[in-house]
Amino acid sequence: MAFVQNFPFLSIILSLFSGPLCAVLDGKWARRVNGAVIAIIGILSVFVLKNVIPAGQPYVYRMGHFSAPWGNEIRVGVLEAFMACFFCVIMLLCMMGGIRERETEIEESKQNLYYVMVNLLLCSLLALIYTNDLFTAYVFVEINTISACGLIMIRQTGRTFEAATRYMIMSLLGSGLLLLGICYLYAVTGHLLMSNIREQVQLLAAGGQHHISLMVALGLMSVGLAIKSALYPFHAWLPDAYGYSTLSSSAILSSLVSKGYIFLLIKIFCRVIGFDVVTESKVVNVLFVFGIIGMIMGSWSAIKEKNLRRMIAFSSVAQIGYIYMGLGLATEAGIVASIYHVLSHAATKSLLFVAASGLSDASGGSDRYADITGAGFRNKLAGTAFLVGSLSMVGMPMFSGFISKLFFAQAAVGHAHKMLPTVIALAISTILNAVYFMKTVIRIYTPMGAYDAVKGDGTGKADGIGKTDGTGKADGIGKTDGTGKADGIGKADGTGKADGIGKRDGTGKTDRAEENGAGSERSASDWQEVGRTGRQVVIWEQPAKSAALICFILLNLILGLNSDPIMRLIQGGIEMFD
Amino acid sequence: MDVWLLVPIALPVICGAVLLVSAFREQAVSDAGDSGTGAERENRVSAGLCAYVGAVLGISVALALAAAWTGDREAVLFTLLDAIPVYFRVDAVGRLFVTVVSVIWVLAALFAFVYMRHEGKEKRYFGFYLMLYGVLVAFDFSGNLVTMYLFYELTTLVSMPLVLHNGKRESVMAALKYLFYSLCGAYGGLFAIFFLYRYSHSLTFTAGGTLDMAAVQGHEGILLIAVFAALLGFGAKAGMAPLHAWLPTAHPVAPSPASAVLSGVIVKSGVLAVVRVVFYIVGADFLRGTWVQQTWMALALLTVFMGSMLAYRERVFKKRLAYSTVSQVSYIMFGLSLLTADGFTGAMLHVAVHAVVKCGLFLTAGVFVYYFNYTRVEELVGIGKRMPKMLWCYLLLSLALVGIPPTGGFVSKWYLAQGALQSDMGVFAWLGPVVLLVSALLTAGYLLPVAMKGFFPGDAAAADSGAGNHGAAAVAANEVGEPTKGTKTGSGTKASHEWEMSGKEEPPLAIRADGREEAFPAAKADCRKEPAFAMLLPLVILAALAVLAGVFPGALIQYASEIAASVL
Question: Most-buried pick from A219, A304, B348, B377 (CB within 10 A)?
Fold first, then answer.
């Protein structure tokens, strides 16, 4: 056994023990240790990946060399190694992007505890990716839940307590269902190791025994993990948790935590139950339907949302809907598309979160939609990054989102029953995505000078605009036309020269007055105040965040332009599942 | 890999982006928005910007035309997926479109050098203007469907800032409307691409289509639906019903040179997309005689008629022109939907003719806005007295659009009608030409009165001064759009004579309902007889082109019919 083969186990252990280590360090050192650990694990994963690809087959790492019924195993294939590596990259970038927010939003004395949680989270994600044991998976699912709760509520505001409580309740419900499912499976098959369960399930399925029990187990586990990854009807905890926690928590939660559960579900589908059994079951259809509903409802909620970060969070609901839709297709192409979307969504969503925080940096720290007017000019890098993320989400070619949409569509075209619903859902959801992302992009690239014109709900203002633009004028002339000559003359008389000039001067004056902020009704609204405190943010003001943004943009472009090798990697990895 | 194909794409995009992020500052505009006319400010956009844009555009256009007309080039930029490279290739259709785009682009830029002083924010305008040129060239050179889709989307995104240029609420809303129509449409196209990817040999454009008939066997129904979705979707950009509504919203708010290129060129990208899908991927034979062809044809004819009617009763000048675009581009769609050689030839001819004419007409509208802030038809009464040369250009362009020989419009419409009569489409074979004729009449009805009233304002303008003058002008306004009466002619000349006699103290002003004409000092201090040279020159060239295309159509017809022969 090559030394490299120890690396997966080493990386799990490393992240596990660096957690307690961070607890005794002060905040600054904990941060360094944490960054180093993530980087080291990422590098280790690259070595593992390099080792596994030429081998062409996965290997099983038995801990302590205990064999099957008692031993605990790690199984390393191409896809596992690649996911571990990718997760490390994303996590490192998220941590880089959120440094300043953590310093300002978390109490000084609790800084180091944040890194404890992050290390534990990384440990549990790695374990979920690598483990070959269903019960170990459950244990790390719980660790994952707890550390995620910590990440949410460490920014101590009332909102985050509420969000964390909600998240805890929903997550525990999910874990409970998962545990029940595992128990069922254990009762039916008598094993906890994935490969052993698989053999047993194949036997049972071939003989037609315990059909209902298997379906129940599959259903329980699917629903449990669906709750934890915020599939549509179970998404209520998500917007608060993502919207109010500190930046790196939001980014990590949305791009990694839910993806870890989804990866576990894919493993359960492919490696525990077996793909043919899953395909026969109705569970996939349920996931498919809820995936589609999620795609549409998530976008719909995002359209209505007025807070930038909550909008992005709701968009996550929609994107997770995509992933479940792909799983629900129950074909290999569908699963590949889902995994690709896991990657592209992880890269894009964390990019959007970091970019959004860059935009609110330039807008007096506000997330509110109205405040970020023109923020793209004040913080150019964040604006560009948000543009890239939005285009990717909308499905612009050259960015990652387009490729995953293409894969979904390819997987759907030719599918017996699910072709039309999938393609139509993709259509509607693309358009809805375009609605809220493009709206935001236009908003951040609207110069401050024009805000009054763009502001939609300014009632008094709308009148003024109508006057200057002459939309009302059209009516007037239409009237003269309609009523005939005499009327026309009468009206023309009415609008003499002096009148006109007087009116014009008046409007000019009020305009200027309003621009000075003297207009009482408008200076009262706080969005304008914040707009005034908006400031220029240059790239080197927060070098870590800027670097993270640039890396995210590059990652997005790589996923969008160079999808073939990644695609082949995923396909190879899925073949190795068997 | 042919670098010379990539340079004319990359150069304007990069230079445009550089301009956008550069520290170049426009001269401060004293009062942003539409409150003043350009003439009272400085007359030109700052010379440095002009030189930069002019140089970049000149080089790009020269390179693009050189790349287009010197042999069949191809280049793979990179590979998106295994079977889908981003791939450029020059072919006959692309050549035609690139040439049209380049000509229009140079002329509209020349016009904009003066005009954009009126709108302000020239840097942003010209930055996106340059980028858009590169994107359009890439779009025209696209060698496969996914590349085309990519640049179709980019065209939408890059042209959107031109629409929302003045940043007012209406403009932003109009831009959003444009965006959503285009994106929804593009998704219709993408929907078709998903299916075509599966049912065709390749997505590379091949004259005559690449459909894999063995794979299609048994799936004709769904494929027809997909093609129809593409037609509707890409038709959105071409202003074909039912997704035409963005055009009349977007045009009035955009700066005039932007409307000119939007209407003259960008709308044609929808046409090119349809040509590519129907004639280069699906193949005309697959659609011939199906419900898709019939529905397509019916929609095109409906749009032709409806667009003309709406234009006829529209009073805002640019909106009228926008409806006219809706109608005229559907002439092209109708020609394509015939799936006959003559119809296709006519469509290609009309692409060129309409681009030239509509660009010219919108530039005319720009002149009115720039010098007088006139946006409505009834304000244009008597305009020919002040700008006779410009109104002559307008007249020639209008005649070309109506299709009066010997102008370009006549030739293209001739071929469209021929194509319709030759096709065996039953009722459409005679209904098509009839609708085209009726629409041509309506076109005359909504374009020519502007010129007539412009030259011959009628006795209304003869009234001397004050409110009476305004009232009379309003009366005259009521009659715009009606066929001229013999009696008007004499009195019109008299009126103009009187005006010239009385000096410049009170030019025959038209009325705006809210009495805002006093806000246009330009009209009062109206010393100049013609627009600035840089504004007039493009108009003259465009008018000359529109006429010359009808006088010497031989080469163009031959070129178009060669394309038609290759794809059918």
Answer: B348
